[in-house]
Design brief:
Elements (H helix, E strand, L loop, with lengths): L1 H48 L4 H127 L6 H21 L17 H109 L5 E3 L5 E4 L1 H7 L3 H7 L1 H10 L9
Antiparallel strand pairs: 1-2
Helix pairs in contact: 1-2, 2-3, 2-4
Length: 388
């Protein structure tokens, strides 16, 4: 499990790094594209206003600066929206990673639970088999004990019969030997007779032995009811153990199949949930893009409205400058000197004839006529002065 988690974390880190590199490249491309577009627009605009005079060029520059300010705001908004979209994509990647991590952990715990269940079942089956095997062992041991006892009884009976026969033979031989001995036998002769008899008896006893080995299978066709009952019990117990093992194998196989079905169902459900999550994330991205498009559209409408207002103001300024230039041409073409003042007797305009009359430049005449304007304000008369 730790290895799987480590691999998932490494995969997530690689994915995030790759996505961040793509996002940084997109932001840089957008910024470069915006800057290139602005430079192109500036060059075209400079070319368009290069033939205009200074006053009109200043007005047109103001108009261009207003448009550029709105363009910068729009570009910044577009870049911010791109960064927001990228942050949302990273958030979705993190959500998918968390979901995958939770799914992997859930499947792991489910498999661990299944292993515990299988282990518990195996222990239970082992105990059941152990009980049956112990019962079968006890039956076999009891049956073998019974056969051994019968075999021992049969052997004892054979030994007893052999002993009786041997004793009878010894007695007959003893009587025959005693009759063959003289009436006054010596003690050594009697001892030698008894010693020979004893050795002969040992030889007879050694020849009358029996074996204790036996085979249970050899008694299956026995007519003894006890043996039949014991063999029947052993056979029944063996059959029960065989059926128990088959039943346990079927139960274990069924449990494994059920576990596999549960894991498959859990994985299918997780895949369905992940698909729904991806669909929801795609819908969220589409909704965010629509929201961004709507914001950009509204911002463009506001900017277009403001640019139109600024353009109308600039057009009015251009028109005023044009009229002023025409007026200046008319005034300069008149031979008489003309000075235009306002209601406060402040000189607003004069023609070139005034400069010739007073022999001063326009800026100098402005300072020179301050006193004259003041006198005109007090006496309300100034020769050859026209007001507008």
């Amino acid at each position: 499990m730790e290895q799987v988690l480590l691999e998932n974390r490494l995969e997530f880190a690689d994915t995030v790094t790759h996505v961040e590199e793509i996002h940084a490249k997109k932001c840089k491309n957008l910024t470069d594209q915006q800057e290139s577009h602005n430079r192109t627009e500036k060059a075209v605009y400079d070319l368009e206003i290069s033939h205009l005079n200074e006053d009109l060029r200043a007005v047109m520059v103001k108009r261009y600066l207003v448009k550029q300010n709105h363009k910068k705001i729009l570009d910044k908004k577009t870049l911010d929206q791109l960064k927001e979209l990228q942050a949302r994509e990273l958030k979705h990647i993190k959500e998918l990673f968390d979901f995958k991590l939770i799914s992997t952990d859930s499947v792991f715990h489910l498999k661990q639970k299944h292993q515990d269940e299988i282990q518990t079942l195996d222990i239970k089956h082992y105990k059941e088999r152990k009980e049956h095997e112990e019962t079968l062992t006890n039956l076999r041991e009891a049956f073998q004990q019974k056969l051994l006892e019968e075999h021992h009884q049969h052997g004892l009976k054979q030994v007893s019969d052999a002993h009786r026969s041997t004793l009878g033979n010894l007695a007959s031989i003893h009587s025959q030997r005693l009759t063959s001995v003289q009436q006054t036998p010596t003690e050594s002769t009697i001892q030698r007779v008894y010693l020979n008899l004893f050795k002969w008896g040992e030889c007879v006893f050694e020849e009358t032995g029996y074996e204790y080995g036996f085979d249970i299978e050899a008694f299956r066709n026995s007519e003894n009811p006890d043996i039949k009952t014991g063999i029947s019990q052993i056979t029944s117990c063996e059959e029960g153990l065989r059926l128990l093992k088959e039943k346990q194998a079927v139960v274990r196989k069924g449990m494994l199949a059920g576990h596999a079905a549960q894991v498959e169902q859990a994985q299918a459900q997780q895949q369905q949930e992940m698909l729904e999550l991806k669909i929801m994330q795609d819908a969220e991205i589409q909704q965010l893009k629509k929201q961004h498009d709507s914001e950009i559209s509204e911002l463009k409408i506001v900017h277009d409205r403001e640019v139109a207002m600024e353009q109308s103001i600039h057009d009015a300024e251009c028109e005023a400058l044009t009229e002023r230039r025409i007026l200046s041409s008319v005034l300069d073409s008149v031979i008489d000197g003309i000075i235009i003042i306002d209601t406060n007797a402040i000189i607003r305009r004069l023609n070139s004839a005034v400069e010739r009359i007073f022999d001063y430049k326009a800026d100098e005449i402005g300072e020179f006529l301050v006193g004259l304007s003041t006198v005109f304000k007090g006496k309300h008369q100034l020769a050859r002065t026209s007001t507008c």
